[in-house]
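Reader question, answered in our methods column.
A reader sent in the components of a multi-part assembly and asked whether the whole thing could be modeled at once rather than chain by chain. We filled in our standard form and ran it. Here is what they sent:
COMPLEX SIZE: two components
ENTRIES:
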Amino acid sequence: MNESAISIKDVALDYPRKKKGVGLLREFITGRFKKIPRKDRWFRALNGINLDIKKGEVVGIMGPNGSGKSTLLRVIAGIYAPDEGLVEVEGRITLLAGIGTGFNQDLTGRENIKLTGSIFGFDSKSINDMEEGIIDFSGIREFIDDPIRTYSAGMRARLGFAIISNLEPDILLLDEVMSVGDYEFRKKSRARIDELVQGDATVVIVSHSKSIMMSMCDKVYGLHNGEIVTDGEPESAFEFYESEKE
Amino acid sequence: MGVSENKVLRRDGKLPFFSAPVKIMQNLYNYRQLLKHFIGRDLKVRYHNSILGYGWSVLEPLALTVTFYILFAILSDSEDPYRPITILLGILAWSLFAKTFSNGTTCIQRNSSLIQRVYFPREIFLFSKSGYNMFHFILSLLVIIPLLINYDLMPTQQIILLPIALIMILMLGTGLAFFTSILQTKARDVEHIVTIGLRISFYLSPVFYPLEMITGGRIPEQYAEAYLIVNPMATYITMIRSAFTGAPLDIPTINLVITFATTIAIFWMGAIYFMRKERKAVKFI
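And here is the structure of the entire assembly that came back:
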C-alpha cells in the first residue's frame, strides 16, 4: 500500500485574470490596446504544491472559495498542465465536478454512455458490459433512448454520476458532488462513493462539509491562496478552515 | 479492460518543438478509438436527426451547382464541355476545405465543457472534424457518378490526383485551424474573421469557374504564377477536376512543388504552434 497513486512535485500554475478575451480585437481597433504586464494578466492560482497520495488513500481538500481547490483537482486530472513542477498519476482517473460530463445534446442517453466510455479509454466491449449497470443505477431507464436535450437538470446529473462512478476508476476526484439529485439519489450516490472508498480506489474530495471529511478521509489538507497550509492531519485542517470562516 | 489501464499520466512544463507533428500522430494512433467515436457521433447527428438525412449533404452542392450553371450560361461565353462537373467538383472541394478550417477554428472553444472535465490530447477535436468532413466529402462525391455516366467519362489514371488533393486539402484546412483554434479561445472575433476570409476566397478561387478563366491569358503570366502560389486551393480544386475529367493537369511542375511545400509547411508549423499553446489556451475557455 506504499505505492504512490498521485505524486505532485513543486507544482505552480498561472491562471488568466480576465478569462474571456472577447474585447481583445475591439480594444485593438479603438486604440485602447496597451501592453499589460504579465503579472496583471495572470495570477498564481497554485504555488509550490507538494503532495504524495498513496494508492487507496482518501484525501480531502478544504479551503475558502477561490483558494484553488478545483484548479488543483484539474491539475491532478491532467486538464491543466502545470507551469512549473511535475504531476504524475498512475491509473485510470476520473473527475466528477458539478453536473453532466460534457454530454452531447443531440445524442440519446445510451449513445452518451458509449461516448463517455470511449472518452475515458474503454473499448466497445467493456462499454457494452457496463451499459446495463449504468442505466439501472441512473434510474432513468424509460428515457435512456431520448436525446439528452429533453432531460431535466436532475436527470443529467443522475446519468453523469451513474456513468462516472461505474467506470471503476483507480482514482476518483470529487468536486462538491454530494449535493446532486433528490434525497433518494443522494443517498444512493453517497453509498456508491463509500463503496469506492472502501475498495482500492484512491479518492480526492473537495468539499465544504466537515462531516463528509470526517467520515471518509484519511488525510485532510487546507488550501489557502493556492498553497497547502496544513500537514494533512484532519484536525489541523478543520482548525484552519474554521479560522478562515471568521 | 479498457485501453488506458495502468497508464501513467505525466504532465510537466516541457513543451515539444520539432517533434510536435510526430507527437500528434502518436496521440492520434493511441486515441484512434475515441477519434472513431467522435467522427461517428458527428455523422450520426448530421444524418439521423433530419428527415432528409443523407439528402442534405448532396442537396446543397447540387442546388449551388444548378444556380451557378444557369448564371454562367447567361453571363459567360466560355466553352467548358463538362461545366456541371466542373462546378460541382469545385463546390465539393471548396466546402471540404472551408468546413475543415471553420469547424476546426471553433472546436476547442465549443467543447469547453468536455475539455474541463477530462484530459485527452486536444488535437483529437481538430482531427475528428477533419475526419468527419472527409467522410462527408466522400459521401457527397457519390452524386458525381450519374454525371460521369451522362458525359461518358471513365476514370483514367488521372484519378490518382483525387486522393493526393484530398490529403493536401485536409492538411491545409487543419494546418490553418491549428492556429485559429488557439486564437479563438482568446478572442471570439477570430471565427468571424475566418468566415469573411473564406467567403472572399470562395470568389477568388476557381470554385464555380475553371482555373483557365484566371490563368488562361486574361492576366500577365507572372501574375498567374503568383496567383497559384498564394492560393493553394486553386491547384487542389483543379487537381480534383482533372482526376475525373481525365484532362491533363495544366499547372507547371514548379508551381505544384511550391504549393505542396507551402501546405506541408503550414501544417508542420501549425502543429508546433498548437502543441506549444494548447495548454495555455484551455485556461481561457
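What stands out: The longest strand of chain A covers residues 4-16. Chain A is about 40% helix and 25% strand.
Send us your own complexes using the same form.
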